[in-house]
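User: Could you check the structure of this?
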Amino acid sequence: MARPLRINYPGAFYHITARGNERKAVFKSNQDRKQFLSYLGSAHKRYGAVIHGYCLMDNHYHLLLETPRENLSQIMHHINGAYTTYFNVKRNRCGHLFQGRYKAILVEKDSYCQELSRYIHMNPIRAGIVEKIELYPWSSYLSYIGERKEDEWLETVFVLRYFGKRVDFAREKYREYVENAIGKRMEDPLKQVYASTILGSESFIEWAQGKIDRQSREKDSRDIPALKALACRPTLDQIQQGTVDVVRDDAGLQKKIAMYLSQDMGGYSLIEIGERHGLQASAVSQSNRRFRKKMKEDKHINEIVKDIHKRLGVLNVET
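Assistant: Sure, the predicted structure tokens are below.
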């Protein structure tokens, strides 16, 4: 069976799960869990992985993971490989620890990061391990609500910003958001996953499918390391300047293109783009949705965007 496609670009946001082989336990002691968390830390230090949330259960784990360097495979090879070696040496065993490859779902982070964070943190409640979510120490929940010192490799700010600008206020609102769901029938966000690979709006799915199509057309060139090395995440300044260089006399169009490419090429969040252009995240989302439609209808605009896209560099996907 062919490996599933991994849509890969700078700043991509994933929900990651990995289960024990034959559903057996992968964490048999607290020391095992501590060791696994240490590999999340080394993945952050060595490979730039940004961990937005985690939950370690007995026979599987969940991560909310961002890849600023578009290196998902490298990160996951380090985490799962290092932990498997540790686990096997400790117990004098050999062979696979995890069941097949990890599962990585590409997520439209602005739309689903809050919901997925809550879903991950509520795992011990759904499994009946604890009655109060704050009693489970092996997730990032306690760091989110300020009851445990945050590890340097854990990023809580991105999600908490959706609940308020003041940290203490945002933490309290996040606690309410999670605890209010306990005991209620909540829709599983992962049931909305498209083709077992993508979680997002129709426009996000369409955008991601475009990257898959590009992979199919460029299959041979993707295997050339030199070409892969050329792909890098443009900064917001580079996107802005690249747009101005091509669109010189229309400030309104410059802004629309820059906002669109900041999301499409750079993978920046709606909040980050909004802060750059003095708009609310919802206004950026609406503008990009309209502009995407305009590109389909106006060949001239589409060519302008392609020109800027080429100047800034092309993103890639990996298998």
